Give the backbone structure.
Amino acid sequence: MIRIFPLQTGWVKVKRAHQNFRGPEFFRLPSIMTDFRWTPWLPILCWLIDHPEGPILVDTGEHARISEPEFTKQDPVNSWIIRKLLKFDVSLDSNLEMALHRIGFKPDQIKHVILTHVHSDHTGGLSSVPKATIWMNSVEHQNALTHPKGTFPFHWPKSLQIKYPEMSQNDSFFGLSATLTSDSNIRIVNTPGHSEGHQSVVVTIDDLNYFLAGDVSFTEQQVKTMCIPGISENFRKVKDTYSQIDRFACAHKTVYLPTHDLESLKRFYNKTLYAD
Ligand SMILES: [Zn+2]
C-alpha cells in the first residue's frame, strides 16, 4: 500500500508580481523588484511517499537559518536577492527533521529524495538526509553548479549521491517520464517553465493520481486560467506545461498539489479533483 504524508517546513511570502504577473515577459523581473505588495504567508510543502519499496521524499523544504545573512553570505548576490524578494518564517521546530519526526519517520530511513527543482525552499532540508540518493534533473543540477539562481548548493552535504532520472520519451501527456519503483506508481514527469529542468511527481494510488507539482504554479486556478507567475523563467514553457497538466488532469482523476498553494492541504485531505 502506498501512503502520502504532507510535510510543511514553515512559510514564505513573495511579491505579488512574483506570484501573479500580467505583462510582457521581459518586464517580469523589474515588476517583481519594484512591487511593494506582499502575498499572505504561503506554505512551504514537501511530501513523504511511504512505498513498500521504501520511503521517498519529494523536496526537502527550507532551512531554518535561511533568513540569517551569515548563512548565505558565501553567495552575496543570491543572498541579497532572496532577502529582498522573499520573507521566510521557518523555525527549528518546523524544519524537515521535525516534520519527519511528527509523522514517525527518521531522516536515516530516507534513501531517496526526488527534487522538483533546486530553489532553496526545496533543497534547504538536504542537510537532514545526507545519506540519501537525490534524483534531480541534469540541467537543473548543472545550472545550480554553474550559475545558481535562488539556491545555495555549497550547503548541500558532500556525501549526497546525486543521480539523474532515466527519462524516456514514453509519456503521452508529458513526453519525458521516469519511474523509481517496480510498480510504476511513482512517476517523475517533465514540467519545465518555472525553471529549466523542473519536474513533477505523479503518485497513483488505486485510480487516483496525486500530482506533486512543485512550483509549476502557485495555485490550481493559475493552471486553469493560464495565469503565469512572474518568477517563471520561461513563459512559453509554463504555458505548454499548464496545457499538458490540464489535459492529463481532465482525462484522469487527479488531485493537483503545488508547494505554495494555501488550498493544497485541503484538496489533499478531501481528495478534491482538478476536474471538479
Ligand atoms: Zn521555485
Remarks:
- The chain has one domain: 3-270.
- Residues 117, 119, 194, 215 surround zinc ion (CB under 6 Å).
- The chain has a mean pLDDT of 95.
